[in-house]
Write a structure and sequence with these properties.
The chain is mainly alpha-helical and 297 residues long. It is built from 12 helices and 3 strands; from the N terminus they run H-H-E-E-E-H-H-H-H-H-H-H-H-H-H.
């Protein structure tokens, strides 16, 4: 009971019956004596749920054989999930064995010693397309990803998210450059979901290119609310980590779309003017769309 009281005192936002819709005033939380045993138990369970470590889980539930004129190959569906919290959407990418091999060799260049006991399933010269071999390799690749994630320097490496998103980024930006904004947006939304799952182990700037591309797509699809929201979300990490190539372009889009929506944009406009004064001659004059089009070429 003493432990439950301590949890209630240190987590005021959890100090109410989870079935009671009445909000708790953080400045005047109820005392331990005012809580029933049931409420204290619920609070303690909520605290433990919050403190449960979030981990990435990888699953390769299926595969398919792609046949082309000259050759054929197997594509594996790689599902990325997060544990420790309710993950409502299972997002996936498709990768060939050659993609895993390229990824592994890039990691070996930086982490050869750390990967001493992590072995990529070997490539077979024959029998690659038998159902038994494909099933065995599918499970081996799933185990391989789990072992990579267990190594701290690997999961924090920029190579890790690139394996799950770089192909899709190139595909999305190719569609965007072709003016197929709706199809590009579908790709980008999937990329963002994967990046958000990977974000606890990566720099917050990882999602900036994706959000900028989404803002451009939304604007061209005449969805100003969504365009403003994507750009607004990208701006804080751009400010914090000094991504100069994006800051002025993002501010410019936010000011333009903000005026269109009737939003208060005076502060954003002042920031843009100050930025132009401070970085005169150094700041890029490209629009956000021009920056996005040049990315992932």
């Amino acid at each position: 009971m003493w432990i439950s009281c301590l949890a209630a005192m240190t987590e005021p936002e959890l100090q109410h019956d989870l079935t009671d819709p009445t909000p708790v005033d953080p400045g005047n939380p109820p005392s331990c004596s005012s809580l029933t045993t049931k409420e204290l138990q619920q609070n303690w369970r909520a605290v433990k749920q919050r403190e449960r470590p979030v981990r990435l889980l990888f699953e390769i539930p299926s595969s398919r054989i792609v046949e082309q004129t000259v050759h054929k190959y197997v594509v594996y569906q790689v599902v990325v999930m997060r544990s420790g919290s309710f993950d409502s959407r299972r997002v996936f990418v498709e990768r060939r064995y050659s993609d895993f091999s390229c990824f592994h060799h890039k990691l070996l260049e930086e982490f050869n010693e750390e990967l001493e006991e992590v072995v990529l399933p070997r490539k077979l010269l024959t029998g690659n397309f038998s159902p038994e071999i494909i099933s065995e390799r599918r499970l081996s690749l799933q185990d391989y990803l789990a072992k990579l994630y267990a190594i701290r320097c690997v999961r924090h490496s920029p190579h890790f998210p690139k394996f799950f998103t770089e192909q899709e980024q190139k595909r999305a930006h190719t569609l965007l450059r072709a003016g197929q904004f709706r199809l590009a947006l579908e790709q980008l939304e999937n990329i963002l979901e994967i990046e958000e799952k990977l974000l606890p182990w990566q720099r917050p700037t990882m999602i900036v290119p994706t959000l900028c591309a989404m803002a451009v797509c939304y604007r061209d699809l005449e969805k100003p609310e969504q365009a403003f929201g994507a750009a607004q979300r990208a701006l804080p990490p751009v400010r914090r980590y000094g991504l100069k190539q994006y800051r002025a372009a993002l501010l410019g889009l936010l000011v333009d779309v903000g005026y269109e929506l009737g939003r208060p944009v005076a502060q954003l406009q002042e920031e843009l003017i100050r930025l132009k004064d401070v970085e005169r001659g150094e700041m890029s004059s490209r629009s956000l769309k021009e920056l996005v089009i040049r990315a992932f070429t």
